[in-house]
Design brief:
This is Porin. One of its GO terms (molecular function) is porin activity. Belongs to the OprB family. The chain has a single domain (27-58, 81-464), classed as Porin (Beta Barrel). Helix content is 15%, strand content 41%. The chain has helices at 27-64, 85-93, 108-125, 192-196, and strands spanning 127-140, 150-166, 171-184, 215-225, 230-237, 274-282, 287-295, 312-324, 327-340, 346-357, 362-371, 378-388, 398-408, 418-430, 433-443, 453-464. A 16-stranded antiparallel beta barrel has the order 1-2-3-4-5-6-7-8-9-10-11-12-13-14-15-16. Strand 9 (327-340) and strand 10 form a beta hairpin. Helix 1 (27-64) packs across helix 3. The longest helix is centred in the first third of the chain and has 38 residues, at 27-64. The protein starts with 26 loop residues before the first helix and ends with a strand. 46% of the residues are buried.
Amino acid sequence: MLGHSPGSQPHVLIRCKDTLVDSCTSHQPAAENIRTGTVRAFAAFAVKAVLLTASALAQASAAAQQPQIPDAPEPAQHRVQSGQALDWDAAVLARVPPDPLFHHDPLSPVLAPLDAQLTRLHEAEKLSFSATYTLLNQYATATPAGVRHDWGTGRFDLNGGWKAWDHGGSAGSFSLLVRSGTNLGVSEQFNLSDRIGSALYLNCLPGGGAQQPISLNVLYYRQDFWQKKMAFYIGKIHPNEFVSLSMYNNDERTQFLNGENDGNLTISSDGAYAGGAALEYQATEHFFVHAVTVDTEGSQQTGIKTLADRKYMNAIEVEWKEGAPTQQNHVFRASLWRDDTAKRGSGHGVGFAEDWEFASGWVAFSRLGLATDKGTSIRRVISLGGANIRPFGRRGDMFGAAVDLTEPSYGAGGLHHEALFETFYRARLTKSFELGPDLEVDVHPTYARKEYTTALIGARARIIF
């Protein structure tokens, strides 16, 4: 299983884009109009979600008394012929069974009725929800003087989607992602990765900085047109959903924890959640183009008012693709980007990546990023790794290992070339619970005063609602 948690609920693929602002217009009114439209869309979406979900929950207890219907057999492989490549991948991943180690799920009496009601909600109202809670405990063998060695973190993710309309060749939909993070047994201001001095975000569940109790990370409108060969997104988006996205090293909840295996760190806004817009063009079955513009001053904790400051990251990616995840997926990507930032100046760069899935379930992947010294905190990166998406024949488990070599942007205060090795194993114990170890070996953290090496031993668990 890859970056998707199959279950009885329909899959919601959160994909983020940026807003394009005309340089010839007044930017403050433009930002205000976009913000007002986004708030109204969210209000309508939220009201509809609350009313319909309340109705579903009211029926959940009655449904719990009814006999459980066994899962339908997995349908034969087929490829969706319309929409974007990521939609095709989502459709394939939605059919991958959980394949748990233990078929008895202690949470089933609570979650099964709710899943059934949410499935009916999706069928009746085209409204989808999914949620997870991820726990991680890490221990660092070496830290700077006075820095504690361990920390625990927890993060709740709520995804939502509403297909407002679909007329065959065109469609409109809304998507959202709400998160809530917390530290366990330590101040919310503490971040072990930051205190170690790493530039690679050794725990991407909170990322860098203090924990955020709640944040609206994604809220955008998607418009499909031209027989769904093109899709336009506008609102609060996540650029990594369009640029440098991998199905094998891109989800910190279930795959690698570090930032370089969760995007391309030479693109400074790749992992941002901010106002912007994006465009996808599916030229052929195998070839597509993605373009994205995002506010470099925005964040998951803020709205979109900083769009008026006209500090944007613009990127375009071309991709050749054959197959689909779990079906010998072969992908090659190349990207160009430039940005204007408030603190790092303006920069540009290029990126390359590939994913090659073999029939055995093994996957080889790589990333390369080259950038100027300004506009980003990392100017060079090479990432090589491999994964097995069905170790020991288990489709619910995953194994991965990767090496990342980076060179910092010295204008941003980087002191050392940082190297990182990470490996993990994720076991699907029940339909709603995953557990597994994670090991990171960090060599010469970028911002540490002295060169040193530390190993972070971690245990990660995820509850799938």
